[in-house]
Amino acid sequence: MDIVVCVKPVPDPKQWSKLALDPVTKILRREGIDTILNPLDRNALEAALVIRQKVGGKVRVVSMAPPFTQEIVRETLALGADEAVLLSDRAFAGGDSWATVLVLAAGIRRWGRPDLVLCGAESADGSTGQVGPQLAHLLGLTHLTYVCGFEDASPERLVVRWQVEDGYARVEVRLPAVLTVTKEASKPRTMTIMGVVQARNKPLTVLSAADLGIDPATCGLKGSPTQMGDMWMPESGRRQEILRGEAAEVVMELLTKLRELAALPCH
């Protein structure tokens, strides 16, 4: 089976307090913030590796990200992927989900039509959940979102658990298809020293817009049909007051003030 996994390097959630929006472009400033592999993409990769173990084949990884994320993408090779492609060009910067999918689809088509494409259900920084379905549309494949488990696999079909509002349904998916997976779908493995060593001998190719034959006007911020219009900080009208004294006195004073504000009944 030919499996493609889409992954995304994202800002480390532990440092989200440092994130800021550029006041002109309205996109995130990520300078000085560590980057990690999107957590749910690890679940997607693990699912791909398990399926490969059962039915054979190859697992390829594709990512659209800046050049400095090469080592993050190389982690997927250390975890067991056979090959990786990093789609990197300044023209790709600031793209919404649709502009991103245009680039990912172009990268995937270089390998022909895959049997299975796996994505994390959402990215930690965007959380739109749109990339999987939009990618399926462009590739002309069926899709299923929020897959929370894999029960059986063959080159022709998968049997999966599909997350629904009040539980899950058991679904047979005919291949080829695009699936997005949740945290419950798999337990990602950890890297080993041997995996890191082997990753150095696996291909990691970097491709630009020109390499993919993409018009820069159709991708990135320029090619995004959805863009942020404006941003502002709402004013806070909350009052703050510190009460000091003995506990009993502070409680009585607090009750008096709340009654004056009609926040408590008078009796």
Give the proportion of residues in helices: 25-40%
Shape: globular
Q: Count of DSSP E strands?
A: 13
- Alpha-carbon distance between the termini? 74 Å
List the SSEs and their pairings:
Blueprint: E1 2-7, E2 9-11, E3 20-21, E4 28-29, E5 35-37, H1 39-55, E6 58-64, H2 70-79, E7 83-87, H3 97-109, E8 116-120, H4 131-139, E9 142-153, E10 157-164, E11 167-174, E12 177-181, H5 193-199, E13 204-207, H6 209-212, H7 247-260
Parallel strand pairs: 1-6, 1-8, 6-7, 7-13, 8-12, 9-12
Antiparallel strand pairs: 2-5, 3-4, 9-10, 10-11
Key attributes of the depicted protein:
267 residues; alpha/beta; Rossmann fold; 9-stranded mixed sheet; two-stranded antiparallel sheet
Task: Walk me through this protein's architecture.
The chain is built from seven helices and 13 strands. The protein has 267 residues and is of the alpha/beta class. The protein has a single domain, classed as 3-Layer(aba) Sandwich (Rossmann fold). The strands form three sheets. A nine-stranded mixed β-sheet has the order 11-10-9-12-8-1-6-7-13, with helices on both faces. Strands 2-5 form a two-stranded antiparallel sheet. Strands 3-4 form a two-stranded antiparallel ribbon. Strand 9 (142-153) and strand 10 (157-164) form a beta hairpin. Helix 2 (70-79) crosses helix 5 and helix 3 crosses helix 4. The mean pLDDT is 90.
